[in-house]
Each structure stands twice: as C-alpha cells, then as structure tokens.
Specification:
homodimer; 265 residues; alpha/beta; Rossmann fold; 2 domains; 19% strand; globular
Amino acid sequence: MPLPTTPRAVLIDLAGVLHIDDQPVPGAVQALQALRTRGLPLRFLTNTTRSPRARIVASLQAMGFDIAADEIQTAVLATRRLVEQRGLHPYYLVHPDIASEIGPSHAEPDAVVIGDAGPHFEYDALNTVFRLLMQGLPFIVMARNRYFMARDGLTLDMGAFVAGLEYSSGRQAEVIGKPAEPFFRGALDELGIAPADAVLIGDDLADDIGGAQAVGIPGILVRTGKFRPGDEHHPAHRPAAIVDDFAAAVARLLGGWGQRGPAQR
Amino acid sequence: MPLPTTPRAVLIDLAGVLHIDDQPVPGAVQALQALRTRGLPLRFLTNTTRSPRARIVASLQAMGFDIAADEIQTAVLATRRLVEQRGLHPYYLVHPDIASEIGPSHAEPDAVVIGDAGPHFEYDALNTVFRLLMQGLPFIVMARNRYFMARDGLTLDMGAFVAGLEYSSGRQAEVIGKPAEPFFRGALDELGIAPADAVLIGDDLADDIGGAQAVGIPGILVRTGKFRPGDEHHPAHRPAAIVDDFAAAVARLLGGWGQRGPAQR
C-alpha cells in the first residue's frame, strides 16, 4: 500500500510512538512541532484505557507535546459512545482511574465491558465476568492488545485477559478500539478525508498498521515502543513504510525534514 | 467407541464426578463401594492443582470415599516428575498451597511452570511469566481446563490464564495433566492394562472424554459437575456413553447395579 504523496491527515498512536511511560521518544516533541507547521489535521488514536483522556492530555503536555484533548480519540470514549448508542447497562471491569469517565456498573447488567484494568485484573472480578458471559451477555472490550512497552520492558496488556475469557467462556469479544474498523473510520469521517489520503503512524504491527490498512489507510511502522525485529517480516501485515522512530516518520512525510538516517521501504 | 464388556480398570475424574467442593455427588460414595466389590484396579485422575495430594485424599476420605493416596494421579505430581526428568529449574506460578509439593521457584529459571493459582493469579505474577516467555523459556502448564463446577456455579479455571499468556506471548504451552496422552497412558502402563480394556468416567467433555478417547480409552460422560446440555451434541467429542451421574456410570459398568433411571447410549 503506497503512502500518499501529499497526506491530508495524519493519525498517530501515542504510547510507544510519542512516548514511553512519562518519557518522550527522543526527537518526537520537535517532530510533532514540525508536522504542525504544515497545518495538517492530526488525530491521536489510543487503546490506552488505564487513564482518562484528561490525564492523557495532561501527561502529553507535561512532556512538551502540543496536543489538545479533542484531537485524542480514546478507546474508552469510543466505548462510552457505543454503550449510549445501544442503550446498554453494562457490568464494567475497568481500571478504577477511568470509572468516572465510563460510568458505574449496573446492578442488573445486560452486557459486559472490559478495559485495561492492569493490576486490578483480579481473579474474583474475572470470574464474575466469566459467569456473566456464560449467561450469554454481550462481550465488549475496549481493546485486545497483546502487550505494550513500559520503561522496564514489554508489559502484559489487556488482550491476555480478553483471550483468556474468550477461551474459558467460548464467547467472542467485540473490540471497540484499534484494530476495529469504526475506530479508524470515525477519525477520518469527522475530518471528511478519504483513507488513501491519510497516514497512520504506529508501533503495533497488528492493531495499528493492520487495522489502519484494513480500511485503506497506509501505515508507517516505527521501530520504537513494542516494535520487535520480527515485525519487519510478518507474512500478513506489510506496512507502507518502516522507519526508526516518529521523527523519521515525519521526515518521510514532509520529504526530508530533520531526517535521521535513511527512511526505509 | 464401544465400552468394554468386562472392563479391567476404571479411571475416574474427581471434582464434578465424585464430589463438588466438599460435598459428595449423591450416591457416589455407595457407587464407589459397589465398584470396589468387583476388585477392579481404580485410578483417580485429577487436574485440580490448588491442593496437594494429601489434602485431596483427606477431603475425599472425610466425604466417605474409600480412596488411597497412591490411587490418585495428580497433575501437580506428574509435573514434578517431568521437571525432575528434564532437569529443569522453573519459575513457578502456582497456588501457595502446593508450593511445598512442587518446590520453590529458581532465581535463574530455565522454564516457566503454571498451576491453578486461583485467586493468586495476580497481574504482577502474570507479567513476570509473560516476560520470561518472551525470553523464550519453555512454557509448561499443569492443565488448561476452561472452568470447573463449584457449589456456587461454574468457576473460571486456569485455562483462561494459560490461553491469555499464549495469546500475548505468541508461545504455545505444553500441558501435563489431562488431556495430555502421557497422563492417561501413565495410569494404564502402571497397571499393565490396554486402553480398550479400561474405562474413564469424567464430567469434562474435552479434557476427560476427548483426552481418554484420543489414546483409546472409552469415556463415560456424567451429567454432573461442569457438564452442560450442549456437551451431548458436540461435533468432535462423542463419549462411549452419557449417563446421569457416577452411580449410573457404575451401574452401567456392573450391568445394572443400583441403576437410577435408564443409562443412555
């Protein structure tokens, strides 16, 4: 899938691309500034569901990134919208930090919704969800990422708990965040821009690149965050480009700005 | 797969067949006594890995079952034997109650071994295992059962955590307990009895019946424990017989003893 010669919008993953934990990826703050000078609309798409959007924005701004809250599309908020649209009354297994953003669990739930509870994925809560799934309640998950990069190394993401609940219950989860098509399409529809005129930059081969390219958005894979060398030779997911980091991706898009080593493919 | 006209040994699952939590299944104590009068060798095969064998025996005896420790083959002890045979130094994620039976984790592990930690499946421990798996350590699991029956309902078993770790790490676990072939074969080899001359009685369609029949042991599925109505119509796993409970299974084997309603198929 070719990159557009003149992209009209850029979709950007956050964790692993712009920052790792509370540290910016080297050169990323400056690269985002350079990208801003072109006046392109930007959307930041994140499957991080351990923090509310306000805290994500505050953290990015503290690292020096020029990003506004309404440019950030989170799997949490997309899930809240979907729950409202469908009129559901879910049981939520989520991180306590997003409880106020997503709302309280209902006493008589008609759906199960899971976010990345992280250390709060406890056996009793998982067993409660398992039993609701065995009763046939719809199974909605904000994301199903396998792992993410933290400062001390690759770290287990919520996908492990989703896959485990699917295995034991025999039920299939509906994913709201990346790589779900509506999550990508929603960002572009809001901007009125066609997929082939946009670009996505991410560090997750399957959920960022695979998801974006499935709806026709060319993806640039960066070699930061959860990137692993084997990702370059995946049989199914072939990024439009693979570059060292966010700064190199921006350089590639802007035709040479601040290039640090050769952009590849 | 036909039942033998005169079985020479009977393999029996424990939880869900003879008892649920600390309550015997109605009629099971008497049925086991009746089976004992025939002098058949019996082996009890359990994937329960939250308790050491001594406690399992004590619990069964307290419920009135005439069972000796050396008749019980547990996934914990089979795993300990395998670890010794291979000379491994594992990191263990297991229930604290079996720590003394399986041994301590090694500081520099060369394998990962998981049992049913139950409420002790905590995020940090799972993340530690995930990171060891990403380093390429062999992944050994005592079992991968989906769920089991507790007195308050179907309950999440360790298979959820195994499947989740497999998903996130991209690694495949080696199972030691049921339905692994060596686990069934070992019980019969010890007795010197051919698979077709034995019978297994279990409540788990895939791990008991499917596992036994894969090595040629006809399986009787009981409608107690984790049995669910859909199990009767599974496309792949077709038990040699399906009966109401352990007493009916014994009646079927002994040709009518204490029959409670018609044995089916």
